[in-house]
Amino acid sequence: MDAVVKWTEEFFRFKKLAAHSKKMQESLRDDLLGYIEETAEDPPDDLETWTDSNGSQYVRLPVPVEDSVKNKDIQVLKREHRVSKILDEDRATELLAERKLLERCTIMVPVLDEESILALNFEGVLSDEDLKSLYDEKETWAFTQQEG
């Protein structure tokens, strides 16, 4: 009995520690990104910095720092510039419709309407047995806690 109480106490202690660690890591990451940005724009004489053709910014650390997770020495910090393209469907639809190309660029994907299936069961068109045969059950277990 004492073991389960100890495990439960440790579980909550580590849960709190993990949440705090995540917040601290995110805060430090944000601080480092801000430092790299500022340093790359106005570098001190004793620090090597550069920007690549993609706009990513680099700062060479004065001494290597151990990444204890990957078991490697880190010598350069990078503020990586990333650009992703996202289709603006409203603008694309408007342009394609104007040029009468919308039909060539549109596909119709059949989707079952679960409410309609349930309505068929309610109307008696599909039996309860039919309806039950359409569903798979997925069983999971969750660890939860309750007060009192």
Structure description:
The chain is α+β, with helices and mostly antiparallel strands and 148 residues long. It has two domains: 2-79, no CATH class; 89-133, no CATH class. The chain is 44% helix and 15% strand. The protein has four helices and three strands; from the N terminus they run αβββααα. Strands 1-2-3 form a three-stranded antiparallel beta sheet. A hairpin with a 5-residue loop joins β1 and β2 (57-67). The mean pLDDT is 94.
Number of strands: 3
Structural class: alpha+beta
Number of domains: 2
Query: What distance lies between the first and last C-alpha atoms, to the nearest angstrom?
Result: 18 Å
Order of helices and strands: HEEEHHH
Helix content: 40-55%
Q: What is the topology?
A:
Elements: H1 2-41, E1 49-51, E2 57-67, E3 72-79, H2 89-98, H3 114-122, H4 128-133
Antiparallel strand pairs: 1-2, 2-3
Descriptive labels:
single chain, 148 residues, alpha+beta, 3-stranded antiparallel sheet, 4 helices, 3 strands
Short recap of the structure:
With 148 residues, the protein is an alpha+beta fold.
